[in-house]
Amino acid sequence: MAKASSDLIAALRETAERLMTGDAYGWTHMGKCNCGHLAQTVTKLTHAEIHQYALQKPGDWAEQAVAYCPGSKYPIDVVIETLLGLGLSKDDLVHLERLSDRAVQAQLPIQDRNLDYRRRDDVVLYFQLWANHLEAELETPPTVTVKRAAAVL
Q1: Can you give the residue ranges of every domain in the chain?
Q2: What is the pLDDT averaged over residues 17-25?
Q3: Calpha distance 152→21 (Å, rounded)
Q4: Where residue 132 falls among pLDDT bands split at 50, 70, 90?
Q5: In the chain, what are the helix, strand and coil shares in percent, each to the nearest 5?
Q6: How far is Cα 70 from Cα 58, in angstroms, rounded to an integer?
Q7: Distance CA 37, CA 16 (A)
Q8: Which are the contacts of 146, defined by CB distance < 8 A and separation ≥ 6?
């Protein structure tokens, strides 16, 4: 799961807002899909630029995230590096493309967890739930285990 930060939460919320207010969405377009929209928010690149960069390597976002190579000089790897720098992992990008992270889905009742990764409303909901999950992580202090020294006889 992504490393919670206020910047990442803001990016997720901004992306959800853009999608809710009518930004072009198309799961089969590398710049207008789930990862493509988050990349637009974070990099300020257009959907056309992101799509053009992504087409220089084979595969969809999930495959490109797994094959990501730092320093490769492929423009899409620079975009992925920017996303990773925000606290995301390659697995987060794979899950985002399919709306499949169990920690995010767990915020929904069991009967509502079958999100359609190609449906705008489900993508918006996923971004919002993910932001809520990360926000809760920021607000919850880490648990510290205290071990007591054995009594000396």
Answers
A1: 6-139
A2: 95
A3: 67
A4: very high
A5: 55, 0, 45
A6: 16
A7: 9
A8: none
